[in-house]
Amino acid sequence: MNHTTVHLNFSKGDKLFLWLILPLIGLVIGYFLPPISEWASKLEWIPFQGPFKLVASLNAGWVIFATMAFGLVASIILTLLIYDEILNIYISEDTLAFKIGKIDMSYDKDNISYIYVDHKDLVVIGHEGHELFRYKKELSTKILKEELGERGYLFKDGNPYKEQFKKWVPGLTDLPLEANALLKARDVALKNDDSEEALQIVFELWKLHVSVKEIESKQYYRVV
Question: The pTM is what?
Fold first, then answer.
């Protein structure tokens, strides 16, 4: 058994794109920004005329270096924002932990029955069949399965509960009132693109042994 803790988020290819290719794209955009701005400033129907006209009005030789620096910094900031939104997974022989932005969650291995992947979601199941955790992963399923297996976690292929999920409709009678209210609040959060609030609500649903996922922007639930 592997006794080290492994930290997983992006694949090597994704990291190469984010830390090398994306900054190069930022530099290229910055290099061509002065001529693009000069062209765009002559077309009034193009939005953001103020910034375009400002860049076009600067004829000094340093402008191209400034715009390239801006493109590079913007690409790095974008990469950091992407890292702040994705799922970070920490696997040790006795603990499975997750970090999403400022949110941290940790589970003892003894409390985990098994793990599977539902489309792009990593799902952790407790001994009573309820979901302990679910979130979109960026890493390939193959690598995740290998790392979990090396540390003694049971990984199942496929979704054993696929047929048990029901489409949520406000006021469904087979849901507790509290769960139905939480799903209603989560529906509002999703429509407002408030992913952090939606995730916080899911934590409360998990405590009620209610699992939830989205299919084509619709909520589907399972009760244990």
Answer: 0.79
